[in-house]
Design brief:
It contains seven helices and no strands. The chain has about 170 residues and is mainly α. The two termini are about 20 Å apart.
Amino acid sequence: MKRIRTGEGYVTQNFRKFFRQNFKQSTILWIVLVLVGLVFSIDIRFRMALGNTMGRVMLVSCSVFLIPFVLLALYIFPVQAKFENNIFNNVKNALLMSIRHFFCSLLLLVIRLTIILLGISFPPFIGLFLCCGIGLTGYLTSNIFIYIFRKYIPDELEQDLDASGKTFY
């Protein structure tokens, strides 16, 4: 996001710096997300296998909890990278941002689901995606997150313009 905002720095240097800075918290978050995702996956498959009315009711109740999980998964790592907080506050902030900016959340979800569905329904797309799709997805979602985060850090625009040497008209 910093490279897109200011045009300064090298991608690899910025990546290494922030990777070291956020490694511990991000690893904990990643492990928790994977475990919770596995529980949801197993639960949904089990409920679908039941096939009766009780299974459908339990599937709907599981889906109610799945929606905040998906919203959290969309926002947690950009929030982790942008703001310095403990894990609990980052999770809370990510959920609140995802709800407050619900239309942006839907757009992020559509972008990611489109890539996933294209990969599943059209296997040759996977090779194209590996060449340029990951960068395109990152670029599109970074611009959305820049738009969202500017509401929480209002003076960032002026700092970015100073760092890039551009002016705002």
